Amino acid sequence: MAELYRFGISLDRELIETFDRHIAKQRYQSRSEAIRDLIREELVFKKWTEGGTVAGAIVMTFDHHKRELVNRLLEIQHDFHDIIISTQHVHLDHGNCLEVIAVKGQAPQVEQLSTALKVQVGVKHLSLSVSAAE
């Protein structure tokens, strides 16, 4: 386990009471856990905005019957083969598919892949979730 460092912070009463209500709703065990998550989230955001290495998932739904869409999606994925770790394809019904693409790479490349997929006619929805790669 990593060595723990303790430090104190000063907050006005209204802010800490609001924060305590928030962490209770989220079911955190302690303020420390909630603050650790906030710090991690900020550091991931920093990596994202500064172009650092991130890991994440692209989740998209698309119309399987849209002419040539599957081929275009595969071609795009092959163009980004160096950052794609794996894919999972799910048949939702006769005409709709769900695809989950696990990625790890430089933030700008991950964003380029996500955008290239999202703008294809027949892609109904796409979301990108990123986290720290280390």
Write a structural description:
This protein is of the alpha+beta class and 134 residues long. It is 43% helix and 30% strand. The protein is elongated. The longest helix has 20 residues, at 31-50. The relative contact order is 0.19. It contains four helices and four strands. The chain has helices at 13-26, 31-50, 69-79, 107-118; strands at residues 53-63, 84-91, 96-106, 123-132. The protein has a four-stranded antiparallel β-sheet. A hairpin with a 4-residue loop joins strand 2 (84-91) and strand 3.
List keywords for this structure.
43% helix; elongated; alpha+beta; 134 residues; 4-stranded antiparallel sheet; 30% strand
